[in-house]
Write a structure and sequence with these properties.
The longest helix has 15 residues. This protein is mainly alpha-helical and 130 residues long.
Length: 130
Amino acid sequence: MEPLKNLARKALEGEFLSKEEGLQLYAQGNLPELMQLGYSIRKKLHPLPEVSWLIDRNVNITNVCISACKFCNYYRGVNHADAYITTSEEYDQKISEMWKLGGRQLLLQGGLHPGLGMAFHTQLFRDLKR
């Protein structure tokens, strides 16, 4: 059990653990002790007693994608009937809904649309920032 104590001490002192060391702690560690270790590290890094989270919203820029990842059930081809690009009005609505729920972070994701280049994305980010 001594190697695990050394790994716990290393983590608590802010030293990085290797992948192997992290897996060893995970596989062989006692769950309550690991929970306490995590809590102690959190308190050391963020001493305030409050713990909170951000409310955010994921918005898909488009569902058109040329990547065709095997795991994705979401994408559509350029000419598919369900293909879309989110409009400015839809962004306004989604952002307004997010603000009303206390959200403060907008996350953008979506497909690799072959017709949307750098100029489109640059303008989109300008518009959203405004």
